[in-house]
Task: structure prediction
Amino acid sequence: MRNIKLTIEYDGTSYGGWQKQKNNRTIQQCIEEAIKLLTGEEVELIGSSRTDAGVHAKGMVANFITNSKIPADKFREAINTKLPDDIGIIKSEEVDKNFHSRYDSKGKTYCYTLVNRYEKVCLGRSYVYQAMRVTGSADPRTTLEDTLPGKLMQRKITTEAAHGYSSYGNQIGLTTGQVAEVYDENFVAKRMEIGAVIAAAPKENVVRERPEAGDVIVLLGGKTGRDGCGGATGSSKEHSEESILTCSAEVQKGDAPNERKIQRFFRNKEA
Result:
């Protein structure tokens, strides 16, 4: 019995994560299948950790037990011939029989890449964080006749909101890389809107402490609505041609210049 340690690199875009699943293609599954093609053995590949769907790895460590006579350093080349192009074995070596990738792991490093620019990202879209938007809408195919009195058609709301958020993200300086919309009849009277932009702060400027009773939470935001932080109380009301003119202050509005300043503010060490 031999214990073989693998160092693995992969692009997780097309996979449901590391761990095997019944209804999803995963990294662990692909490598185990490749090993079976080489050795005829059904092995259990033990990973040092697990990654979620769409997450990549540069140095994932895993090990498996085998009776194969293949030289340890040759497993790298042999397994790679059976793997898709987005999964690769960087190194293979024989280790002590008691070695366990997960239990003997000393730590792991996560790397987050953020793009802060006006132009859309074409190369490396799977490797960066950008602006995101998740919304909830009723059926956008609903006709005008079936629309609630005093409400805009769902199709109109959906299309205009999508254009508006994309433009807003660009004004702040972040492209909108993640857009998703959930369709449910419960959103017919009140639409759901969740938007986020991700800013970066130098690692040495970040202080992490445990929250304690009495701590003060400071919420920063531009004057984007009635409450100053993005309130949209007016959007829940039934409107007429007159109320649209008088209640506009109650509807959420973007404030791209202030949002951009807030992002830059957190790069200041003293902040």
User: Anything to note?
Assistant: The beta strands are 2-10, 46-47, 57-66, 87-95, 131-137, 176-183, 192-196.
